[in-house]
Write a structure and sequence with these properties.
It is found in: Cell inner membrane. This protein is α+β, with helices and mostly antiparallel strands and about 325 residues long. It is about 60% helix and about 10% strand.
């Protein structure tokens, strides 16, 4: 028994053993010191909250434009390319795709500024290209909502102008193509006229050689190139004069090309009538700020203050009771 009592006393006097009850008593006796640290850390946290910049994020959800929002652009493409024009769905998809690209470029430019701005665009649902969620972070809820709406409008107007500019380039190219087609058709018609006159002139030579002056055929609809000279020299001379004075004869394709050219020349697409997105949800007014989080920071301040105060208290007591080993 005496040996066991001795070992228990010896263990209790061992400075390397941790006595939880003693720690609790030390913390209780130094509670005012710990409370002082907690108050100091709370004051620091309040000071940080008073000077820290607030961050509020406004978000909007957008999708491809309605048919009416892109109607003028679609109609222009239909006039330009006819049956080869892209479908309305293709045009809508391309429009929102260009909006996405331009918005991403703007986001990157804002991020690379000396004073960066946070503007993001991403699919609302993972794995689905549409709709898109766009967000902007600012120092106040109102500023975030207003600036996000302005950036969306800015990208919309920029993209509409780019589409209108592309359309003008396509119109110029199509006008050039149609004019070239008309010139070629006129050349063909002129060559056909010259060939017809040459054929009649050749028949006239044959008629003069055969000394045929008056028509030898009763039905002129049966005349072929080989029997043309039978119309007689007088009739053939009259035909040559008539053919020379007649205007060129064009096919229906020529006049269809003319109509297409006039329609395209009259095209005038105003960028203000083009919109490349549709709101599913307009920029919202955030009700909770992203940072700083008051409750979280105050709780952390209390915990850190208690931990630092406890550490200082226990460290001071340990140094006070420290006795070097013999």
């Amino acid at each position: 028994m005496s040996q066991n009592n001795y070992s228990q006393v010896n263990r209790s006097n061992d400075p390397e053993q941790i006595d939880l009850l003693d720690l609790v008593l030390q913390l209780w006796r130094g509670k005012w010191m710990i409370a002082t640290f907690v108050i100091v850390f709370i004051a620091l946290a309040i000071g940080y909250l008073s000077v820290a910049k607030e961050k509020w994020t406004s978000s909007a959800i957008i999708a491809q434009p309605d048919a009416a929002q892109i109607a003028t652009y679609s109609n222009a493409l239909n006039i330009l390319y006819g049956s080869a024009a892209p479908s309305m769905l293709d045009i809508q998809t391309r429009a929102i795709g260009r909006f996405n690209s331009s918005f991403s470029a703007l986001s990157q430019a804002l991020e690379n500024q000396e004073d960066p701005e946070k503007l993001t665009i991403a699919p609302t649902t993972t794995g689905q290209p549409l709709p898109l969620t766009v967000s902007y972070t600012s120092t106040s809820a109102e500023a975030a909502q207003k600036q996000l709406a302005q950036y969306i409008q800015q990208v919309d107007e920029q993209t509409a102008k780019e589409l209108a500019l592309d359309l003008k380039d396509n119109i110029k190219e199509q006008i050039k193509t149609l004019n070239d087609s008309l010139v070629n058709q006129e050349k063909v018609a002129q060559e056909q006229k010259d060939l017809r006159i040459k054929q009649i002139a050749e028949a006239l030579k044959n008629a003069e050689a055969a000394k045929i002056t008056s028509p030898q055929l009763q039905q002129t609809q049966d005349v072929t190139q080989e029997t043309l000279f039978l119309l007689g020299s007088e009739g053939l001379k009259s035909m040559i004069d008539n053919e020379a004075s007649r205007p060129l004869i064009f096919s229906s394709a020529y006049y269809q090309t003319k109509r297409n050219l006039f329609d395209i020349q009259n095209l005038n697409v105003n960028p203000d009538t083009i919109h490349v997105y549709r709101y599913v949800m307009k920029p919202d007014l955030p009700v909770r700020r992203d940072s700083p989080k008051k409750a979280v920071i105050l709780v952390l301040a209390v915990l850190l203050g208690a931990m630092v105060g406890s550490g200082v208290l226990l460290g001071r007591n340990a140094l006070r009771n420290y006795k070097p080993k013999a």
